[in-house]
Amino acid sequence: MSFLNNFAGGVRNLFRKKQAEREMDDELRAYLDAAAQEKMRSGMSPEQARREARMEMGSTDAVKEGIRGAGWESTLEALGQDIRYGARQLRRSPGLALVAILSLALGIGANTAIFSLLNAVLLKSLPVQNPHQLVVLDWVSQEWPGVVNSLTGSMNNDDDSGRTTSTSFSYPAYEQIRDHTEAFASTAALAGAESELNVGYEGQPSRALGEMVSGNFFSTLGIQPAVGRLLTPEDDRLQAAPAAVIGYGYWQRRFGGDPALLGRSITVNSVPFTVVGVTPADFLGVQPGHAIDVWLPLHSQPQVEPSWSLFSPSSSGQSGTPDPAALFAAHDNWWVVILARMKPGVSATQAKTNAEVTFQQALASDIKSGAKPQATPHLEVSSGGKGFEGVRGDLSPPLYTLMAVVGVVLLIACANVANLMLARSAARRKEIAVRLAVGAGRGRLIRQLLTESILLAALGGAAGFALSFWGTNLLVALLASGRERMVLSVTPDPRVLCFAAVVSLLTGILCGISPALRSTRLDLTPALKRTSGALQASLSWEKGGRMGLGKALVVAQVALSVLLLAGATMFVRTLANLQNLNAGFNTQNLLLFQIDPTQDGYDGQRLAAFYQELARRVESVPGVRSVSMSFHRLLSGSISTTYVKIPGYTLKPGEKADDLQTYLNGVGSRFFETMGIPVLLGRAVDDGDTATAPRVAVVNQAFVRRFLGDGNPVGRSFSFGGNKNPQMSIVGVAGDAKYGSLRRDVPPTVYLPYLQNPREAPMDFEVRATGNPVDLESAVYRVAKDMDQNLALYDVNTQVEEINKSLFQERLFARLTGFFGALAALLACVGIYGVMAFTVARRTREIGIRMALGASRGEVTGMVLRETSFLMAIGIIAGITLAAGAMR
Asked: Model's pTM, two decimal places?
């Protein structure tokens, strides 16, 4: 009760000052009257009693000040006075205030922008109900589990302990965990791999990112639809009517936000689906950085992507017809990811223990007798409130690095402002001395000076927070220019606002604490006697020939700027070296595109005929020199590897058969001609290398050096993997060309005729143009649409653009470190200019005396420049030393 009374009294004193003053006067008057009456009863006269009472109470103003200071509102009122006084001081020096605010705005804005990105990638929870209750299941095994024959999705068999880990499970294991784990209130599943889908609407195809999810996926997350309804368990059955849910962004982008879309049909890989609902605008999916366009029931996976289908055995024991149900009954095909919601009050440890028992029961019938315990997987539980790992693991290192870079920029800005505050304190030295002389406490003055610096930082932080909106969007755009599409929700939230506020507060303290302490540490007598022209000599820039704090701060700014510029130079040089590397083929005038007819039901000979006809029609387009195709376009990051078995090859000491790894790529005729890869021996793949012709291969020089040694390799044979795989004859040797990445050496590579090695998967096409390949895009689109209007081309770009995408991280670092390095240098220059200009202005009397005694203008200019150059030289040397250590 006393606390509430105290609080209420403080509020009244703040907003009703006149009444509070009258009440205080009345109380003091009543006290004096009572004291005087008491003394009169002891025999004193009225005048003497009143005089004694006043003497005992002391100064009325002092008593009032003491009463005011006893309440909490006095602190708040004093803070308001400090802020108003600090604002007046800043208005008196607008140039200095503007430089300081701009410096801090750039430093705080850069830090806030990077933190906003960190928040979106690493810290922000999914926009779902009670995200802290969500968990993701994965498993770990000391060796490859014997119960797993096929695995789709995430896998890591190279962790610190050499174990194999994955988030993929079989569908029967999911069902067992869903139905028998008491610790989970709900358990959902989704396909372990997102899918690029052909989505058709009113005869217009387009590409969309799709995800197959169980019927209880949205209810497990606790999501409500923006329009219509979401998927239910009734939709997730093999015989259910095909239903689809689309993402809000895709609804707006593709369909213009038309609410009439509900109930209409779209085709997904030529399979009709009815749109039943739209997800809320803030829900992009469960993997940060990826925005799902279409959600489909998990049981539609075999129909939408037939390559996922398993086959029912025929009467002869061989694979027979596709069986959609087989995918969901297979115990050795692990392809679903499990997301669960724990019951209230259940801890992650309890959930793991409970789910592990159920998981082992699900595996019991599949583990063969005598199986090694090391090959048995065990369940793990990790937090799912922030979604799956996804881009988080890829972006964490560069984001932390950039955070360190912008942290250095902020330090430079702090040094800049601290130097300005230190120089400005010279003009106020006599004022501070007078205030100390008349009784002001040193702590009170320090608080006043710190309030001024914090006010500067607050203004800079507000401007920086506004700048961070632009900076964050720019960073997301730069990240999205990489190989994969990236969508992040970077709308500022309370966490970002708190970060900006805390950084601004700490910056204000860091900038102001040293100037405040040094400004109030005065010898009053000399300080009061000195004139303003002499005050500059006592500034802590130089004492006894030693470097003072101000000069040290200038040196620090220059050194840190040089460090960042050196780092930026290193990244730019790395990027230039990669761009200038010889890729081993002609990267100019080359158009690339990808198409996937298997999503429209093409297979076998029909698929091969489609590819050949598409190549023939594209080659007839004016401006096309040649056309070919491949399983993987070069320098895209997409590769295939296998092991080779070469007759007569002798394993080297310490070498195992598993070490004989080679890269492979299926290619069409004219591939080497189109790509500009020279064929050094023998011949290239041609139209005669069909499924009925003898099996052949073209190898590169790295393959010959690695496996064949001296002698003519043409005519020699080898095979892939075990003895059951067919032998193939080498018919040619091609020049070395980069395959998956510019960063790596050319690997041993085998080029196979795609007609002899068919596969139901997307195909990359390479088109060599006589001029600018971009001019061919519209014609290539028309050719593909004329062949099948349900198919969409995607990943259409030039080889140069493909290389640029592959180097997006180097380019991102080069751009950002270059920008922040230049920003740091600019801040250092502004800081040095501001401090030296202020210093020279305070030395006007000294300079006038020097010139009156005969010093020329050039001599005075040289005196100032020598001081500046000396500081710059020390800073550059220190920066180069730091950079030399950092670049290692």
From this structure: 0.72
pLDDT (tens digit per residue) in 564-610 = 888 888 888 888 888 888 899 999 999 999 998 887 778 888 899 99
Q: What is the rounded distance in angstroms from the CA atom of residue 349 to the CA atom of residue 363?
A: 21
Instruction: Tell me how far CA of residue 551 lies from CA of 495, 539, 718, 834, in angstroms.
Output: 37, 11, 72, 13
Q: Is 55 left (phi over 0), alpha (psi -120 to 50) or beta?
A: alpha
Helix (H) or strand (E) holding 644: strand 641-645
Give 860's contacts (C-beta < 8 A, 6+ positions apart).
Answer: 847, 850, 851
Distances (CA, A) of 390 to 387, 712, 788: 8, 47, 34
SS3 272: strand
Residue with tokens 């096309």: 624
Non-local CB neighbours of 427 within 8 Å, separated by 6+ positions: 532, 535, 842
Q: Which token pair is 326?
A: 């087989």
Contact 730, 682 (CB under 8 A): yes
Q: What totals of helices (H) and strands (E) does the chain contain, helices first?
A: 27, 30
* DSSP code, position 126: P
For residues 851-885, one letter each, b for 16 or more C-beta atoms within 10 angstroms of the residue's C-beta and e for the rest, the string is: eeeeeeeeebeeeeeebeeebbebbeebbeebbee
| Per-residue pLDDT reduced to its tens digit, 360-401 | 998 988 887 767 778 889 999 998 888 887 666 667 777 788
Give the closest residue to 188 by CA, choosing from 122, 268, 310, 286.
286
The DSSP letter of residue 287 is S
- Counting beta carbons within 10 angstroms of the beta carbon of residue 502, is it exposed (0 to 12), middle (13 to 18) or buried (19 or more)? exposed
Residue 200 to residues 292, 615, 779, 879: CA-CA distances in angstroms? 16, 24, 21, 58
**697: helix, coil or strand?**
strand
CA angle 121, 151, 388 (to 5 degrees): 15
Residue 329, SS3 per DSSP: helix
- For residue 88, the Cα-to-chain-centroid distance in whole angstroms is 42
Share of the chain above pLDDT 90, in %: 30
* Residues in CB range of 721: below 8 A, 6 or more apart: 642, 643, 645
pLDDT tens-digit profile of 614-640?
Answer: 999 999 999 999 999 999 999 888 888
Render the burial of 583-614: b for 16+ CB within 10 Å, e for the rest.
bbbebebbbbbbbbbbbbebeeeebbebbeeb
User: Collapsing DSSP states into helix, strand and coil, what is residue 631?
Assistant: coil
- 715: its two tokens: 């005519």
d(Cα 760, Cα 307) in Å, to the nearest integer? 7
Would you say 847 and 861 are in contact if contact means Cβ atoms under 8 Å apart? no
The pLDDT mean for the chain works out to: 82
Strands 333-342 and 184-191: antiparallel
- Rounded to an integer, what distance in angstroms lies between the CA atom of residue 321 and that of residue 328? 16
Q: How far apart are CA 317 and CA 331, in angstroms?
A: 19
The contacts of residue 96 (CB under 8 Å, 6+ apart) are 420, 424, 834, 838
Rounded to an integer, what distance in angstroms lies between the CA atom of residue 639 and that of residue 637?
A: 6
Give the DSSP per-residue string, 359-393.
HHHHHHTTSPTT--GGGS-EEEEEE-TT--STHHH
Taking alpha carbons only, the member of 670, 811, 56, 110 closest to residue 404 is 110
Nearest to 426 by CA among 318, 540, 528: 540
Token representation of residue 852: 């009156």
Q: 288 is written with which tokens?
A: 């940060």
Burial class (CB within 10 angstroms; exposed 0-12, middle 13-18, buried 19+) of 296: buried
CA distances from 781 to 602, 714, 775, 802 (A): 19, 40, 11, 19
Query: Which residues fall within 8 angstroms of residue 558, CB to CB, at 6 or more apart?
Result: 828, 832, 871, 872, 874, 875, 876, 878, 879
Question: DSSP secondary-structure letter at 289?
Answer: B
